[in-house]
Design brief:
alpha+beta, five-stranded mixed beta sheet, two-stranded antiparallel ribbon, 8 helices, 11 strands
């Protein structure tokens, strides 16, 4: 009987020790990631950073966060041009206006691919911007057929700015998170193998604005590949968040 009581006591002590250990910093397990909506806390996660090291989302408490999930591939072997344009546009805005400092914000870009694939995604940006510019401003627009003219007008509408990046010189001012296992992308319900008419590993293009307390204040999931929120609109929302409205 005494031996049985000793075993039970030892088991109880061990259980308490495990619970205490799990509560310690660096030992506590992050909760499973689930889809989140406005007014809820963004689930915590840790991912490798393309530029080096790792990043834990909760370490950004005290800053607003623009959390971006580009689509990535638009088809097998073809990148989403709009995603790369939107990335380059935000880089341009950061360089011109220091948006992170202005809005007390960090920008995170989450890609559902391994490090080498993310490298390819970045490297193709200059060529995509050049293609956009040539389509918008052909040498002799009056000689274009109707299909080419329609493409020109569509590009001018979707890509209003002329952005330029030299090959091999794609800036990476924001942490690019490598979600190779799709832990975060799948957990938030964003990763798809078929979306917007293409069967390929991709994310639904999504934006979250998370306030300095870690609460989601804005969430936008694209219904198709074209309908991305304008950055000036997001900046107005950040102003609103900073004012505590």
């Amino acid at each position: 009987m005494k031996d049985l009581l000793k075993k039970k006591a030892a088991a109880a002590v061990a259980a308490v020790f495990v619970l205490y250990a799990l509560a310690l910093p660096g030992v506590a397990q992050q909760a499973a990631i689930r889809p989140v909506t406005v007014g809820q806390p963004m689930p915590d996660f840790t991912l490798p950073v393309y530029q080096g090291g790792t990043l834990t989302f909760s370490s950004l408490k005290g800053k607003n966060v623009i959390l971006m999930f580009p689509r990535g591939f638009a088809a097998e072997g073809a990148w989403c041009t709009i995603c790369n344009y939107k990335y380059a546009e935000l880089v341009d805005l950061e360089q011109a206006r220091q948006i992170r400092k202005k809005y007390n914000a960090e920008v995170l870009v989450v890609m559902p691919y391994a490090q080498d694939i993310v490298k390819q995604w970045l490297e193709v940006v200059p060529a995509q911007l050049e293609k956009i510019k040539k389509t918008k401003h052909p040498a002799e627009p009056e000689k274009l057929d109707e299909k080419a003219k329609a493409s020109m007008e569509r590009y001018r509408q979707i890509f209003p700015k002329d952005l330029n990046l030299k090959p091999g010189e794609v800036p990476t001012p924001f942490p690019i998170l490598v979600d190779a296992e799709r832990t975060v992308s799948k957990g938030l319900g964003l990763f798809m193998t078929e979306w917007s008419g293409s069967k390929v590993d991709q994310n639904i293009p999504t934006y979250y604005l998370v306030d300095k307390s870690g609460i989601v204040q804005f969430k936008y999931l694209s219904q198709n590949t074209v309908d991305r929120p304008d950055y000036e609109y997001l900046f107005k929302l950040l102003d609103w968040i900073n004012k505590g409205m």
